[in-house]
Amino acid sequence: MKVSPDKSWNPRRFDARAFAEVAGELLGEEPLASFDRLSAELHADGEVGAPVRWEARGESRPDAAGQPCVWMHLRAALDLPVGCQRCLGPVVVPLEVDRWFRFVADEPTAEAEDDHCDEDVLALEPKPDLLALIEDELLMAMPLVPMHDVCPQPLSLLAGEEHKDEAGTEVHPNPFAALARLKK
C-alpha cells in the first residue's frame, strides 16, 4: 500500500477528515480473500486471479457557506470469476468503481442529506472502514445476470429442448399431449 508521505493511514478505521486536509493519497492491492462477500460470489471452478486494486484521494472543498467540506475520490477494480447464468460455467466479470464521496458529521446527517444530493454522502463518525466501502461498491458494480457474450460450450436445453423430425424440421411438443393421454 502506498501512502501519503506524512502519515500512515488505517483503512479499517479511516480518518477521512485528516486525509482530506492533507490531500492524502492511498494506493492498495488486497487479496480477494480479504473480502468475504466478494469471495462468496466466486464460481466454484473459477480461479481467484488478480487482487482487488484500489486508490483513494482526499480533498477539502468549501461548501456553499464557505466551510471546508471533506471529499474522497475512490477507484477500485477487480476481475471476478463468477457463474454464467446461461451455461453455469465460470465467466470473468470486470468490476470497476470510480466514485466521489462527501463526508458529513454523523449518520443521521448523512441519511438526511443522501436523498437530496447527487453525490454519495457518508459519515465521518464512526470512522468508516475503507476496505468495507470498497467491497460494497464492487458488489454494487456486479451485473445482475452475469453471462458470457457467447458461451464456450453448447447449452443443454433439457426442459425446452428442440426436437427435429426425420426431415430436420423443428417439432415443438404439444404441452397438452400428456393431458390427452390421461383423458383416455
TrEMBL record:
Transmembrane segments: none annotated. InterPro entries: YceD (IPR003772), YceD_bac (IPR039255). Pfam families: YceD. Keywords: Ribosome biogenesis. It comes from the Bacteria. Belongs to the DUF177 domain family. Plays a role in synthesis, processing and/or stability of 23S rRNA. This is Large ribosomal RNA subunit accumulation protein YceD.
